[in-house]
């Protein structure tokens, strides 16, 4: 008698965005149709998953791994070497330059040493050797050993990482490799491959948004073979076609106390690390509304970044009380974490709020954000503001126009670029007067960045993982 092999999927959720993508989409419902059991290995507290109650789903909170100095050194070496190797890409070079230490502390001197050495030693072989040493130094760590024991007990037949970069998960990947458990990962965002550092380790399989992302992956990681990469789209946008997150126009206007007879502009903020020009742009829009520089009768909604609270906007909120604010309802699940932003988890209400903004506003303005794609999915005009450069003393956000992923957006003409207040106001008037002018360009950009339809994204991912498990 042939005994059927149990298909047991392990899913590694690292942060709130991974939670949104894979817990708040249809993914779990689809995965449970493909696998006999599922274990969620979480970097978030277990209570964050209180909406999951299926008997064949187990949730386990991972112990937090903290790098030793040797592990940090070799991890840093491989990341910097990766940037050195690919610094012909503007985003890689930018990250390389911004990461260079400004002081001479002991750690800074080590980083400078790494920079010096990797200028000359940055071959793929040397990067993989650094990774080998990194893994060797944490192999005997008690957390690594606990991961090994955990996976020995659970015996997942496939381990899926929902993010390819967090270095603190490297010991968990190592444990899977030691136990010969096949691993896969989802490439987290559209900018990760062409501007970010090295992946946390070497996976067996990869899920990507698009054929463009597939080609980038094969370029930056030449040891990966084409058949190990599957284009599936992204669950990041799947809630936009899920009935549970749909709201009516009347509900939208009531929720944000908006006038249905006015056109609505949404400004979506970056986080404070790159969004220091946000208040300047918001003030420019608000003043233009007050002095009637904008030809149409409009109202402004500002959506802040989920990665932070709204405290940095206190002054502008008091100055322009007519602005409506959407502060994302992401719950901080754990205090005193090394990466506090990663412990914020979205609420169902926030996904509804975001979708309603995408669906019912007339124009979006942001600083070179992924939100550009979100609004394009609803065929809304998008203006990217980049007011800062080295000459004017403002935060230099114009440099993001040269990042490989965003240069494609700029070149596509799917958005307009405003480098100052005058350009911004002119572009607002143009966009509100001719909202469909760039419809074809927006559709082409979405097709380039997300190669599969939003409908069925989770099913495609679950089916692919099941196939890799056979």
From TrEMBL:
Record's keyword annotation contains NAD: no
GO cellular component, one term: membrane
Pfam family, one: Glyphos_transf
Annotated GO MF terms: CDP-glycerol glycerophosphotransferase activity
Annotated keywords: Transferase
UniProt key word RNA-binding: no
Protein name: CDP-Glycerol:Poly(Glycerophosphate) glycerophosphotransferase
Source organism: Flavobacterium fluvii
């Amino acid at each position: 008698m042939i005994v059927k092999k149990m298909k047991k999927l392990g899913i590694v959720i690292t942060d709130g965005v991974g939670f949104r993508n894979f817990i708040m989409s249809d993914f779990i419902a689809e995965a449970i149709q493909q696998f006999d059991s599922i274990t969620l290995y979480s970097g978030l507290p277990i209570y964050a998953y209180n909406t999951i109650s299926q008997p064949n789903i187990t949730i386990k909170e991972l112990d937090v791994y903290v790098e030793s100095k040797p592990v940090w050194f070799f991890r840093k070496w491989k990341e910097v070497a990766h940037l050195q190797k690919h610094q012909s890409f503007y985003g890689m070079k930018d990250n390389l330059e911004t990461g260079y230490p400004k002081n001479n502390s002991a750690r800074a001197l080590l980083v400078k040493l790494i920079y010096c050495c990797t200028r000359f030693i940055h071959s793929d072989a040397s990067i993989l050797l650094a990774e080998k040493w990194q893994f060797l130094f944490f192999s005997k760590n008690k957390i690594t050993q606990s991961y090994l024991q955990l996976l020995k007990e659970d015996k997942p037949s496939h381990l899926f990482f929902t993010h390819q970069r967090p270095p603190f998960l490297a010991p968990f990947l190592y444990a899977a490799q030691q136990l010969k458990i096949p691993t896969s990962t989802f490439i987290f965002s559209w900018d990760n491959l062409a501007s970010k550092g090295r992946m946390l380790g070497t996976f067996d399989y990869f899920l990507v948004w698009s054929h463009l992302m597939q080609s980038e992956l094969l370029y930056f990681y030449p040891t990966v073979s084409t058949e190990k990469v599957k284009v599936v789209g992204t669950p990041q946008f799947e809630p936009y076609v899920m009935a549970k997150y749909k709201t009516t126009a009347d509900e939208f206007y009531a929720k944000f106390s908006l006038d249905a007879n006015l056109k609505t502009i949404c400004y979506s903020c970056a986080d404070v690390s790159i969004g220091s020009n946000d208040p300047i742009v918001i003030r420019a829009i608000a003043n233009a509304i007050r002095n009637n520089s904008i030809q149409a009768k409009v109202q402004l909604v500002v959506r802040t970044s989920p990665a932070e609270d709204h405290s940095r906007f206190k002054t502008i909120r008091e100055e322009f009380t007519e602005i409506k604010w959407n502060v994302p309802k992401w719950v901080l699940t754990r205090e005193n974490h090394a990466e506090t932003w990663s412990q914020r988890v979205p609420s169902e209400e926030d996904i509804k709020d975001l979708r309603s903004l995408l669906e019912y506003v007339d124009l979006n303005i942001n600083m070179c954000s992924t939100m550009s794609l979100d609004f394009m999915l609803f065929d809304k005009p998008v203006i990217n503001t980049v007011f800062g450069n080295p000459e004017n003393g403002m935060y230099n956000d114009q440099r993001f126009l040269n990042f490989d992923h965003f240069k494609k957006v700029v070149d596509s003409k799917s958005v307009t670029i405003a480098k100052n207040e005058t350009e911004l106001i002119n572009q607002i008037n143009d966009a509100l007067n001719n909202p469909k002018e760039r419809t074809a360009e927006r559709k082409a950009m979405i097709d380039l960045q997300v190669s599969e339809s939003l409908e069925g994204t989770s099913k495609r991912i679950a089916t692919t993982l099941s196939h890799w498990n056979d």
